[in-house]
């Protein structure tokens, strides 16, 4: 009899194949007593497992491909660090001696104690690092038992789907070049490393399934629906037929999308739309070129500052910005100044964790509180501006005075360069992000000072609805279609249009295919998204007649009833194109 599980979809598409169980759950740990004479040998066995695990992690770190997401190396280093901590490397040895128990049991007790400590941490990002501790512990378990995570040998009938309680970044590296078609895990929050890296693999996958590892047996047939977040165990023939048909159309659609690379992004009525890409690291630029995006709409420069003990120097930053600007060969590259704070804390930041970090010293506030650091970045940006069309974007602006202060820091940076005889472009465009409701309401006041604005819907939704974007327990309230969000979006787009100031959306809404027509109908003509989404959005743009969506969108903006909005959205997406 088939079983259906529901989780959080991470990568789109459908995979149908056989399950391979890759990790051992901590709940399966055996417990036995030792004689006094056996204690030293058991401690040595534990020490050897730690040494093997360290060697394994170091080998994996060295083998991370250059193209892999930059976070991957950072996560592996974090795992090496955790493994070296006496709390993991030494305390279990004391437990073995004190309780005369086996190494697995000692490690499990210490892991449980550490998890309890992490659970008590209020700050989400730090609390989620308990998954990293557990991943390291699982790896030590496997080495205690003499077998690591391995792919099965031989011919497999059907695709291979990894089923794990959790998958660590190290496992991801191991599997990256192997032929597996999907993965599913029991755990994983929206900001967990598994989710971040899973997205970058671009495979159908579902996380947070809770008991998949327990219910799925080795080699069992399963279906992974990465669009709906559904996993079907042992599907009935009819269900299998249904998913095979969906898989075939998904594959055909992907192949067809590749043909759109060079096609213009314009609606059926001939209106041109700019499709830009979001990147986190300079190495992401290859994907932007591959997708034929019209430029970079958002370079989250703060990622240059994360996962390291020291600040990147002016020169290091300059090299990074120059690489991206040069690679885009004259197409615009919008670099956001460091948007640190909230859930993105660099190790060198000394401000501590605030009670309400998302309402604290983040984005432009942090830049203005640290003007010397800010100016190092502004100087590096201006120096890179001579290599192409660089644009500067300020994050989290909430009012005119903040914007004035940011601009005056930019003037100081330019004056310094001028006096030092260092070249920079005269006409660098400067923009402000609209991601706080206050900014949306006073956006017209920004237009005298900026050349463009970009709407950060991820934060705009969070701050408008008072819903923490990384808190699972309120994720059902995080709603891009809330009438208040739609009104703020529409207000910003209309005000910018009226003033003739270019406006884009660079939050996740821009890459959400359900919302493309809605945004087009609101008047949006610039979208910035993950490079992998560019062609799918282009396909919808090319299949939209603006005349036939405008009325429906106007009706959506007039109602405050969420059911009516949902109904109108269905009609909007069903409206015929050509
Ligand atoms: C946003 O808030 O929509 C945005 C693009 O910025 P980030 O997701 O980096 O906060
Ligand atoms: Mg933001």
Keywords:
alpha/beta; eight-stranded mixed β-sheet; 578 residues; globular; single chain; binds phosphoenolpyruvate; 23 helices; binds magnesium ion; eight-stranded parallel β-sheet
Summarize the structure.
The chain is α/β, with parallel strands linked by helices and 578 residues long. The chain contains 23 helices and 16 strands. The two termini are 44 Å apart.
Q: What about the largest sheet? A: 8 strands, mixed
For the largest beta sheet, what order do the strands appear in spatially?
A: 1-8-7-3-4-5-6-2
Helix residue percentage: 40-55%
| First-to-last CA distance | 44 Å
The distinct ligands, each listed once, are: phosphoenolpyruvate, magnesium ion
Uncertain segments: none
Mean pLDDT across all amino acids: 88
Which structural class should the secondary elements be placed in?
Answer: alpha/beta
The rough form would be described as globular
Radius of gyration: 26 Å
Strand content: 5-15%
Number of helices: 23
User: What is the strand tally?
Assistant: 16
Describe this structure in words.
- It is a single chain.
- 46% of the residues lie in helices and 13% in strands.
- It has helices at residues 39-62, 70-84, 86-89, 91-99, 103-119, 124-128, 130-144, 169-176, 193-201, 212-215, 237-258, 285-290, 314-327, 363-369, 371-384, 400-419, 437-441, 457-465, 483-499, 516-522, 534-542, 546-558, 562-574; strands at 3-6, 8-11, 14-21, 159-164, 182-185, 205-207, 221-225, 230-233, 274-279, 296-300, 332-336, 389-394, 429-434, 452-455, 503-505, 526-529.
- The strands form two sheets. The chain has an eight-stranded mixed beta sheet. Strands 15-14-13-12-11-10-9-16 form an eight-stranded parallel beta sheet.
- Helix 1 packs antiparallel against helix 2, helix 1 crosses helix 7 and helix 20 (516-522) packs across helix 22.
- The model has no long low-confidence stretch (mean pLDDT 88).
